[in-house]
Amino acid sequence: MTIDKAAPASASILVVGGGISGLTTTLEAAETGHEVILVEKNAYLGGRVLQLNQYFPKLCPPTCGLEINFRRIKDNPAIHVQTMTEVVKVEGAPGNYEVTLKTRPRFVNNNCTGCGACGEACEGEIENELNFGMDRTKAAYLPHPMAFPAKYVISEYISADDKKKCEEACKYAAIDFSMTETTTTVKVASVVWATGWKPYDATRIDNLGFGRHQNIITNMMLERMASSTGPTEGKIVRPSDNAAPKSVAFVQCAGSRDENHLPYCSYICCMASLKHATYLRAQYPDAEITIYYIDLRAPGQRYEKFYNQLKEDEKVFFVKGKVAEVSEADNGSVTVVAENAVSGEKVRQTADLVVLATGMEPSLASEKPQADLTFNDSGFIKNDFDKGGMFGCGCANKPADVVSSNQNATGMALKAIQTVVGR
After folding, report:
1. How far apart are CA 288 and CA 274, in angstroms?
2. Has residue 225 been placed in a domain?
3. What is the 3-state secondary structure (H, E, C) of the chain?
4. Is the CB of residue 247 less than 8 Å from the CB of residue 332?
5. What is residue 38's predicted lDDT score, i.e. its pLDDT?
6. What CATH number does residue 378 fall under?
7. Do residues 250 and 399 both lie within one domain?
8. Residue 334, helix vs strand vs coil
9. What is the rounded distance in angstroms from the CA atom of residue 298 to the CA atom of residue 290?
10. Whether residue 372 sits in one domain with residue 396
11. Which residue, 135, 147, 140, is CA-closest to 162?
């Protein structure tokens, strides 16, 4: 397998995006004998799943599903992985596409053993994007303990002094500051867009106070807190003072099902908050948890059973009502104002921590590629199976959980193969 080298001049299929959908599509296609180029804009594979503490249906850690996929990719010579790479444009027709790729420099070559000497020598720090800016990391860093490829990355913002220190610390001649951005062209028969999703920008929801008050966080920020690889090493605390929260309020549909933001249901938010309640209950048995919701959606028998178990918890309260306002109270606490849709009463609750269940926005919504793709009004790819050739997969196509994304990815791999064999 080729990692972080120039992609071959031609292949059967190009997969854009190395999250769980892209990995599944790549493996399904390659294991039927097709040459696959997998490109990922980040410095590592794994996508959003890599950022999770646990994921449904078995509440596994990311290692549970990703490690075996990384091994299968590593062992398959038909798969060519290129990280820090984006698609510039796609020209041509089904069965005969010419794709222009742009690759950013890692400043670390394949000699890297992941020893960490460069990170120890480097003194400068940058914002840690993996943890949504809740902490900082060295300018020479391994993106994640289970990063694949397991190679360090050096930020373009590293100082000249730190450059010298990194070069001197590396015993393997793995540091290469002569690397520059490169552009390459590949020919493929089919393209699968597994570009995934991004959390909706909660600062755009003025009435919910995110960005103005420290103790209002998003669901993905809490997910990183709960992870042992996150900014607090698995401890869920108030950002303002690192105190254990005695009360937590979840605000569902934060930006979703709202014509001013995301008009659709993001599918995963209800189950994510229920899962987060179990994280909190495990760490803080006496903490009180309140979930404000419009409708609670638990699709399928297994999810419904999970929901019913939480309803029996005396420390978990469900309030049917849309939150009107979230504002700061005394001592860093946060006040939530909502109308109880059942009783008609106005509810005011003060909590130590508020978690906004922000929705799922397709990654291509704001920056659409130069390719013959059709999008709906929300930025999701609309597949044209009659035309074939290019397909949106997983959350690039619609909001979905990990299970549904994997199922969809298998189907899109088959569609891509049909384009290849039919040309």
Report:
1. 13
2. yes
3. CEECCCCCCEEEEEEECCCHHHHHHHHHHHCCCCCEEEEECCCCCCHHHHHCCCECCCCECHHHHHHHHHHHHHCCCCEEEEECEEEEEEEEECCEEEEEEEECCCCECCCCCCCCHHHHHCCCEEECHHHCCCCEEECEECCCCCCCCCCCEECCCCCHHHHHHHHHHCCCCCECCCCCCEEEEEEEEEEEECCCEEECCHHHCHHHCECCECCEEEHHHHHHHHCCCCCCCCCCCCCCCCCCCCEEEEEEEECECCCCCECCCCCCHHHHHHHHHHHHHHHCCCCEEEEEECCCCCCCHHHHHHHHHHHCCCCEEEEECCEEEEEECHHHCEEEEEECCCCCCEEEEEECEEEEEECEEECCCCCCCECCCEECCCCCEECCCCCCCEEECHHHCCCCCHHHHHHHHHHHHHHHHHHHHCC
4. no
5. 98
6. 3.50.50.60
7. no
8. strand
9. 17
10. yes
11. 140
pLDDT(74) > 70: yes
Within a domain: 139:
no
Nearest residue to 12 via CA among 123, 132, 101, 96: 96
pLDDT of amino acid 349? 96
- pLDDT, tens digit, for every residue of 254-266? 999 999 999 999 9
- Specify which residues 417 forms β-bridges with: none
Which of 330, 359, 388 is the last residue before a domain boundary?
Answer: 359
CB atoms within 10 A of CB 406: 18
Integer CA distances (angstroms), 243 to 223, 239, 333, 356, 408, in order? 17, 8, 11, 19, 42
Distance, in Å, from the CA atom of 59 to the CA atom of 223, rounded to the nearest integer, reads 13
Amino acid letter, 388: G
pLDDT of residue 421: 87
Beta strands in 129-196 (DSSP E): 136-138, 140-141, 153-154, 182-193
330: pLDDT strictly greater than 90: no
CB neighbours of residue 374 within 10 Å: 11
> Is residue 21 a contact partner of residue 395, using CB atoms and an 8 Å limit?
yes
407 and 323 within one domain: no
Task: For the chain, give the longest Cα–Cα distance.
Answer: 69
Dihedral sign for Cα 369, 51, 231, 331, please: positive
What is the full DSSP assignment across 380-397?
-EE--TTT-SEEE-GGGT
Band (pLDDT 50/70/90 cuts) for residue 83 is: very high
Query: Any idea what DSSP says for residue 244?
Result: P
